[in-house]
Design brief:
6-stranded mixed β-sheet, 27% strand, alpha/beta
């Protein structure tokens, strides 16, 4: 579901969506890499349908994936708020990390994309 939704969201921008969640090399099903059209920037996406124990664990996973995939922004998509730590809610931004639910994926995608483009323009 997440891959289909990401592809739909990416199409008008000409962004690329690549599934990198083969289960090999540490990747899990639900891992995607977005190429932001014309910018050279990448967004790593982790989609999960399981309860996460803590926000630090989520942030650590996102940081690891960003480094492994040479991405400047990360997007964590949970199936619902019940699967996220209570204080996260439906949508939060922590630095270059966006954490949201599937229901808010269109907003999360656009915010993560804009964050990546802003980094591109500022030279970071």
């Amino acid at each position: 579901m997440v891959q289909a939704r990401l592809s739909h969201l990416a199409k008008p921008f000409g962004d690329d969506v690549l599934s990198v969640g083969s289960g090999k090399g540490g990747s899990k099903a639900g891992d995607f890499l977005l190429g932001v059209n014309g910018s050279g920037k990448r967004i790593v996406v982790e989609a999960r349908d399981r309860r996460q124990m803590s926000l630090p664990d989520i942030k650590r996973d996102l940081e690891r994936e960003m480094k492994a995939r040479d991405a400047s922004v990360s997007l964590y998509v949970s199936s619902s708020t019940d699967m996220l730590p209570q204080h996260v809610g439906e949508f939060q931004i922590y630095g270059e990390k966006v954490i949201t639910t599937f229901a808010y994926l269109p907003i999360g995608y656009r915010v993560a994309r804009m964050m990546a483009l802003m980094q591109s323009h500022s030279g970071t």
